[in-house]
Amino acid sequence: MLTINNKTDALIIVDVQNDFCPGGVLAVPEGDKVIPVINQLIPKFDKVYTTQDWHPEDHISFKKQGGIWPPHCVANTKGADFHPGLKVENAIHIFKGTDKNKEAYSGFQGTDLSGKLKENGIRRIFITGLATDYCVKATALDGLKQGFEVVVISDAIKGVDVNPDDSKKALQEMKDAGVFIIKSGKLY
Ligand code: VGL
Ligand code: ZN
Fold it and tell me: How remote is the CA of residue 70 from the centroid of ligand 1, in Å?
């Protein structure tokens, strides 16, 4: 069991956007299954931050530009919007991957997320969202590097699994680095 301390804990919701959910151009299988779990967690936290992948039309990660992904999460399109089921009206919104020449899997990369968290006295972050093997992993590992205690909520994340074991490996990598992995039901 883990008790939430609302002065020093924050919830981070990574990239729960239409393009990463079933029907989207880069759908995470069952990506939308994280939504009810995250919606149950939101009211438990005073401070909630979202990240959104928010790319220009010619972003370096897109195939036409030599990257590995189809165009996705183009700024100000429906694909980049939050999934309509996610209840994030009162969250602080962070946009990443906005620079056309830089990939940014982590919510800390090229953003002021770390500064905003520290300014608010946050010392521990609880990470949820998509995708386990890309942006969740990168955000968790960067969170450690920024000096936060990092907890990933295992039933509030889903992976792409381009290779079958990618999510499993990502979880192991996070654990080895010092990330705590817990189920949402263990949080009070
Ligand atoms: C992501 C692939 C490309 C993610 C972002 O949010 O995990 N994956 N861009
Ligand atoms: Zn992207």
Answer: 11
In whole angstroms, what is the distance from residue 107 CA to residue 12 CA?
9
What value does the mean pLDDT of the chain take?
A: 97
Q: Which among 13, 14, 15, 65 is the best mutation to test ligand 1's pocket, defined by most ligand atoms within 8 Å of the CB?
A: 15
- pLDDT score for 51: 98
pLDDT in tens, 125-154: 999 999 999 999 999 999 999 999 999 999
Cβ pair 105, 43 in contact under 8 A: no
3-state class (DSSP) for residue 5: coil
Using a 6 Å cutoff on CB, does residue 133 contact ligand 1? no
pTM: 0.97
What pLDDT is attached to residue 44? 96
User: What is the length of the chain?
Assistant: 188
183 is catalytic: no
Examine the residue annotation and report whether 137 is marked as an active-site residue of this protein: no
The active-site residue out of 9, 19, 135, 137 is 135
All domains in the chain, ordered by first residue: 9-186 (3.40.50.850)
178 exposure class (CB count in 10 Å sphere: 0-12, 13-18, 19+): exposed
